[in-house]
Design brief:
5 strands; two-stranded antiparallel sheet; elongated; Penicillin-binding protein 2a (Domain 2); 5 helices; three-stranded antiparallel beta sheet; 150 residues; single chain; alpha+beta
Length: 150
């Protein structure tokens, strides 16, 4: 009985080297694709995902005289807005709002009637007054924060 011939280690070594070389070439091709060909696309996506624009209103300081007495200060206020398409009964809504904001029912009804998605109903309302209006739960009435100089 003859002994089996031992396997050739050089052949296995060459095969392992070729496989490693092919894997390395695949990585280099992918790296070139990502770094050179797709770089602008990836850079744009990265910038878009990490940068967010927030509008921050400037807070105005108090104006004082030489002795430190306040001549003008900024106080928080609200602008009352309406979406006319959400208001089902402008007359009833105007009757509720007019006394709260100190305007006539007719002028408030005119602001609430129509098909516009955004109209100002009143400006410079105190936050306390807005809280009272908000508690009424009137559909289509909203507010935006602002400030008033006094």
């Amino acid at each position: 009985m003859s002994q089996p011939k031992p396997a050739n280690p050089k052949r296995r070594l060459r095969l392992a080297g070729v496989v490693c070389l092919l894997i390395l070439i695949a990585f280099v091709v992918k790296l070139f694709y990502v770094q050179a060909l797709s770089a602008p696309t990836f850079a744009g996506a990265a910038t878009k995902s990490r940068s967010v624009t927030n509008v921050l209103p400037a807070v105005r300081g108090t104006i004082t005289d030489a002795t430190g007495i306040a001549l003008a200060t900024t106080v928080e206020s609200r602008n009352i807005t309406a979406d006319q398409t959400l208001i089902k009964n402008p007359q009833a809504t105007a009757e509720l709002l007019a006394p709260m904001i100190g305007k006539s029912v007719a002028s408030v009804r005119a602001r609430l009637s129509g098909e516009r998605r955004f109209v100002y109903v009143a400006k410079g309302i105190t936050p306390k007054k807005w809280d009272q209006i908000k508690e009424m739960g009137i559909a289509g009435i909203f507010s935006e924060g602002t400030s008033t100089r006094v």
